[in-house]
Amino acid sequence: MSEIKLNNPVKNFIHGEWMEETGVEMVPVYNPSTGEQISAVPLTSEKTSLEAVDSAYSAYDPWRKLSVAKRMAYLYDLRQAIIDHEEELAVIIATDQAKHVSEARGEVRRIVEIFEMACTIPALLQGETLHGISTNISGRIIKEPLGVFGGVAPFNFPALVFAWFVPFAIGAGNTFIFKPSTQSPLFMQKIGELFQAVGLPKGVVNIVHGNRSIPGTWYEHQKMSGVCLVGSTPTAKKMAEACGRGGKRSMLLGGAKNILAVMEDAQADVFIDNFIHSCFGSAGQRCLAGSIVAVVPEIYDSFVEKMIAAGKKIKIGDALDPDVYMGPVISAQAKKKIEQYIEIGIKEGSNLVLDGRNPDIPAKNKNGYFVGPTIFEGVTPCRTIAKEEIFGPVISVMKIRDLDDVLEIIRAQPFGNGACIFTQNQYYTDQFIAEANVGMVGVNVGICAPHPYLPFGGIKDSHLGTNKVQGKDGIDFFTQNKVATVRVAPPSGTYVAGESASASTEKKASPAVRSCVAQ
């Protein structure tokens, strides 16, 4: 695997240059697989954060005036640079974020696909023209960039969230300030190097590290146009309120509690393969991870046995070990929180049939943050572990009466991110797609993540703001419609106001009417 060569400590990237922040608190960055400190990230000062805003603002006007073909050339170059450094980027993600390196490779490949989608921006930026509003008058809709945007990423997808925000924003002509998570900042250190390598103009993308004080400088700032977030629902709600006060456009993705519904005709092998990937991939730390498995009575006992057996076979260990399936959770605090939820599940009467606490791991990883696959069965919808987002490999299995029962459970959830059904029945399929009260549904898949050409995002408490990420939604969020009403006249000077000379004469007998729209 590639050797990681990174700035240490982590630096900000402002106006095309690396800047080491001094005189501020430095937060340790750990390798969750070993518990070893590998770097430190600055809690950047307000002064430096404002410098990034000024940089992006100064870069905006020349960037938006650059031809769309030249902006696309930069996106193509960045795409190729990511491909050229694919393995190095995957190893970086597997080191500080600690999803297994095979999943990290998948994340890098997905961002390449998103860049390819963003390169279709010229076709989607085309405006519209309406001819014949009146004689010699037409109306035009022109899609324009808005200005400077800021984006906040969570720890669990440092690459994916970068790709959801940055290529769409700058491809449409905006400039950007990106704040990575303090827990997984190393991916963006390499991306900053790639910005320099492809010659991205200074200030078009700035990278600023820190805590919530960074977006705090954006909400009221006159030079900022909008804010993006992928994070928790409480954080998204606070940011939505702040963006509302400041008049900023917002695209905010929050938490989730996703259900896998298993009907009596589900194919067992298909379900188990997808169950493992959905519930235990990335150690359950993703917004589309399966959290509740709802099974009809006819197959409940046999499928619970299959889930337990599958969970026991999962090998846990270092995220860089090719023989491992599941790596650690992100931090000691996350491990402690997940284990507290396990205790709550036991106290509330759910049946713990697979206990992931204190898993068997290699000696070299004894200081890592590991929680193994955990399964509760006999869970009811009112229990805490069935209602709150745990963000770890803890699964609640419920026995449901029928399709209507699971649809009611989904409707009662405050979250509305994703839900999947396993069935061969077309009626079940159509009803589930129509009635599941979520933003994304899946059929016989465990993770209903849309392809980059389609929008990604939930509803209810899982999504706040104006648009979803990626696809046409991503482009619409970063652009605004300008409407032009245009009257033209012949160069000969024979133009007569109104539809024609004769029509104008005929109207003289009628009372004059002045319209508020073009005539």
Walk me through this protein's architecture.
There is one protein chain. By secondary structure, this protein is an alpha/beta fold. It folds into 2 domains: 12-255 and 467-480, Aldehyde Dehydrogenase, Chain A, domain 1, CATH 3.40.605; 258-414 and 418-451, Aldehyde Dehydrogenase, Chain A, domain 2 (3-Layer(aba) Sandwich). Helix content is 38%, strand content 21%. The protein has 17 helices and 22 strands. The chain has helices at residues 46-65, 68-84, 86-96, 101-118, 121-124, 158-171, 186-198, 213-216, 233-246, 268-280, 300-313, 332-347, 384-387, 403-412, 426-435, 471-477, 501-506; strands at 12-14, 17-19, 26-31, 36-42, 128-134, 137-145, 148-152, 175-179, 205-207, 224-230, 249-253, 258-262, 290-295, 351-354, 374-377, 394-399, 415-416, 418-422, 440-443, 459-460, 463-465, 479-487. A 7-stranded mixed beta sheet has the order 14-15-16-13-12-18-19, sandwiched between helices. It has a 6-stranded mixed beta sheet with strand order 9-8-7-10-11-21, with helices on both faces. Strand 3 and strand 4 form a beta hairpin. Helix 2 (68-84) packs across helix 7, helix 3 (86-96) crosses helix 4 (101-118) and helix 10 (268-280) crosses helix 11 (300-313). The longest helix is centred in the N-terminal third of the chain and has 20 residues, at 46-65. The radius of gyration is 26 Å and the shape is globular. It starts with 11 loop residues before the first strand and ends in a 13-residue tail after the last helix. 49% of the residues are buried. Residues 500-507 have low confidence and may be disordered.
